[in-house]
Design goal:
By secondary structure, the chain is of the alpha+beta class. The chain has 8 helices and 4 strands, in the order ααββββαααααα.
């Protein structure tokens, strides 16, 4: 089993509800794909097979996620994937994942796609056009450095900030995220700047 100590540290850092989920996924991937290698990409544990990304997992405050690089080709269209990263939605327990045999079959399917050289499916038409809310646009425009950074970003980077702000459930959280967005943009930072270079 080719493990990475950074993945050990990541799992230990997310003890509690996430530990059994991450440990289960890690063991399942290595059992079904003994040749896989672990690494960290975008700040999260990632499994490589023959040099290509096979799958990745992540933990957050109240949920974890797991996804295949060629997700829609592995699991099909799963409504759960619209609720979180990956294809299995917001994971709060091991029971939220397929059982060992089913998960092993999915990992085998992902490996076969890599062996066949199949590229990840990218359907950009499903994403609606980016609409920047008026309150966020006004806050960004009020700080010239933030406006220059935001307007120079590619659409994907702008979308990360917009979604982060608009997904806030409480007005206080939205205001805090809006202020943080302006601060980071004024410094020329992308939304996930903390994880770049991991």
């Amino acid at each position: 089993m080719r493990t990475d100590p950074r993945v050990d540290a990541y799992i230990e850092r997310h003890a509690g509800f996430a530990w059994p989920i991450l440990a289960y996924l890690r063991e399942a991937v290595h059992a079904a794909c003994p040749e896989c290698e672990e690494t960290m990409k975008w700040g999260m544990p990632t499994f490589l097979y023959k040099g290509s990304i096979l799958a990745s997992m992540a933990a957050f405050k109240s949920h974890a996620t797991f996804g295949f690089w060629r997700g829609s080709l592995v699991v099909g269209d799963n409504p759960a994937q619209r609720r979180a990263m990956g294809q299995f939605g917001r994971l709060t327990a091991v029971a939220d994942l397929p059982g060992p045999a089913d998960l092993a079959a999915l990992i085998g399917k992902a490996m076969a796609l890599t062996d066949e050289g199949v590229k990840p499916a990218r359907d950009r038409a499903k994403r609606p056009p980016l609409a920047v809310p008026a309150d966020l646009r006004a806050a960004i425009d009020a700080v010239p450095a933030a406006k220059a950074t935001f307007d120079a970003f590619p659409p994907s980077c702008r979308r990360e900030y917009v979604e982060w702000v608009t997904e806030a459930r409480r007005a206080e959280t939205r205001a805090k995220r809006r202020a943080q967005t302006v601060e980071w943009l004024a410094q020329g930072k992308r939304r996930n700047w903390k994880y770049e270079g991991c």
